Amino acid sequence: MNNIIDVKNVTKIFSKGIINKSFTRAVNNISLNIDSEKPMIRAIAGESGSGKTTLARMILGLITPTEGELFFEGQNINKLNNEDRLNFRKSVQPIFQDPFGVFNPFYKIDRVLNTPLIKFQVTDNKTEIEDRIESALNSVGLRPDETLGRYPHELSGGQRQRIMVARALVLEPKVIVADEPVSMVDASLRATILESIYKFKEEQNISVIYITHDLTTAHQLCDDIMVLYAGNMVEAGPIDLIVRNPSHPYTKLLVNSIPFPDPDMHWKKYDPNDRLKLDVKSVGWRNK
């Protein structure tokens, strides 16, 4: 089986301090792969500080693992030559959590859409650039005539995030790494963005790694899931199986946090001892 992405036993340890050094194991011995022949949407779920974003940044090649290796189409991404690295950057595209932080406020949003096409040597033909941008904007529910030519501050948060989705889409990548793409968007716009991400797989054969802390959207969107806790993979498998029959105590806590539309069901009183029962040192994992 050929894989676009292979993550093999990666660990990331951060250190701080000069004299009295301390170390944080953000990601511990994680493996996953993305099949090149069968597009999929894989959720990587967990609370803040569980290692989700660190793992995503390693997959994107933004940081290097302390241990383990990552491969793109069989090549170690940290040993790519310039030409292969350019292809990797084009083929594996990010959608970041904070859309406003990606924009330069001094430039119109057109720049963030057309610059990748030129930098990644996709095309320098003006007509083709315009066609690609208009098609990408339409696919995320934005009208080009109402969007292009405007500055970032003239757009809503939902519009800016959809432009980030369009920016990734315009390059026709093979994999998109979406890090909490709807966490800063109004509830009314989440469905639009999630539908766009779903269409990546269904209509354009693009695989998606969906980073989230929200099992509700993960269950609606994804094919399978990997649950992280304190940098460890504690459970992985088909999304329906994990949500309906969680095995690890932390996964059970996540599943129990999913709201149900039952007016007679009361919120469970929060017991901090439930959280403390999850001993980091004894975290195990189960792959279903």
Short structural description:
The protein has 288 residues and is of the alpha/beta class. Helices cover 36% and strands 25% of the residues.
Give a written overview of the molecule.
- This protein has 288 residues and is of the alpha/beta class.
- Helix content is 36%, strand content 25%.
- It contains 11 helices and 11 strands.
- The chain has helices at 52-59, 82-91, 110-119, 126-139, 144-147, 157-169, 187-204, 215-221, 239-244, 249-256, 272-276; strands at residues 3-16, 22-35, 41-45, 67-72, 75-76, 92-95, 175-179, 207-212, 224-229, 232-238, 286-287.
- Strands 6-7-8-3-9-10-11 form a 7-stranded mixed beta sheet, sandwiched between helices. A 4-stranded antiparallel beta sheet has the order 2-1-4-5, with helices on one face.
- The two termini are 20 Å apart.
- The relative contact order is 0.15.
- The model has no long low-confidence stretch (mean pLDDT 84).
